[in-house]
Amino acid sequence: MPDDQPLPLLDRLSALLGPRGILTDPADLEPHLADWRLLYRGRTPCVLRPANTAELAEAVKLCAAAGVPLVPQGGNTSMVGGGVPDEGGRQVVVSLARLNRVRDIDPLDMTMTAEAGVVLKAAQDVAAEAGCLFPLSLGAEGTATIGGVLSTNAGGNTTVRYGNARELMLGLEVVLPDGQIWNGLRRLRKDNTGYALRHLFVGAEGTLGFITAAVLRLYARPKESEVALCAMRDEETALALFRRFRDRDETAVRAFEYMSGTGVGFYARLIEGGSVPLSTPAEHYVLVDLASTRPDAGLRPLLEAVLEEALEAGEVLDAAIGESEAQRAAIWRIREEHPEAQKREGASVKNDVSVPVSRTPELIRRASEACRRLIPGVRPVPFGHMGDGNIHMNLQQPEGMDPAAFLARSHDIMETVNEIVRDLGGSFSAEHGIGRLKTDMMEGWRGGPELAVMQRIKRAIDPQGLMNPGKVLP
């Protein structure tokens, strides 16, 4: 503990949490000090690992009395450095990994009450065992936790059908900055009783309080599904294909993902067992995922009819339909391994942006061209959720360029992309959040009354500024 912190605080925390509830050995601290992208590396005197909400509340009270800042951490999969301490060595990391129980599941109510440390994939599996579906799905679902995905309002692959994490949450339990526990674990679809406090904490990235449990919405499990990989003529025809499916049966579209030929090429070359079930490489691809809870939904005829129309129109160049669950999973793997393939290829600058769905082709085209002008040889790797307007407008370093030199241009690259996003009426942060990476953009994008209200809310709820300081707000 730094000299300006009283040593008895560490002793009191140790007594409260027990030997499993606090880490101080440097080797044990190491996994908690850096983010997944290795953008930031901080220091901490200890990592707290409370076993339940009551322990966390008491630990927060002790730290609040001592003026010690706290940084919540779930699966540590943040793309914007939202879950790591700063370099000062004073911020205490709070891991919610031991709050990992599913407290309740009700297949009639179609709700699940899960603690913050429950891994997303585990929540999906528990729902499946009960004959239900928890539809939130993203690449890091084997590591990301319920508390983390709610704190960042994660989106993922099925937003076009089910919405973001916010839309899948009915109630919350939260430890407030003074250590009080707010129990808002209500399973109600309708509850119009004043301010909807639960929505303050979703997307706040732990800056207002720590989510410890949530009531989640469940859905009926699909009884029929189809997945296809399509090579497209260009960005415009990719969106045209989405419109064809939406117009034919909007309720059938579970996901609609765009991928560039460059990104698919990285996957085929760098991921073990990576293969693309199409004979000729293309510059543009889409993944179409259809699902229905009706066993007689006729998804295969629908899929084939729409693809045939698009093939005859010259929009689709080639297509492969998954004939089994294994083949459908293999097609999805092409999309899910994009971040890992980019990581293996070298340095990349990631832009998690959104625009109105109708403007996604223009975003991909204009941003790619602008970044090529900015840095000759740069390789655009746009991919993501075309069906909801969220494109990860990522840029890979030019071949042969020093990675550090490329990353030094990150601000220029993000500004170049964001200028186009702003012109198209979009957002500079679609689903990854603000974290530490994008706080300097908040004034330019959300300045004036909007940012002022956010700052007043922060001061009102966390007057000492101890909850995940340096994140979200400039």
TrEMBL record:
InterPro entries in the record: FAD-bd_oxidored_4_C, FAD-bd_PCMH, FAD-bd_PCMH-like_sf, FAD-bd_PCMH_sub1, FAD-bd_PCMH_sub2, FAD-linked_Oxase-like_C, FAD-oxidored/transferase_4, Oxid_FAD_bind_N
GO molecular function per UniProt: catalytic activity; FAD binding
Listed cofactors: FAD
Gene Ontology biological process terms, A to Z: respiratory electron transport chain
Keywords, in A-Z order: FAD, Flavoprotein
Transmembrane portions of the chain: none
Residues covered by the FAD-binding PCMH-type domain: 40-221
Family designation: Belongs to the FAD-binding oxidoreductase/transferase type 4 family.
Protein name: FAD/FMN-containing dehydrogenase
Source organism of this protein record: Belnapia rosea
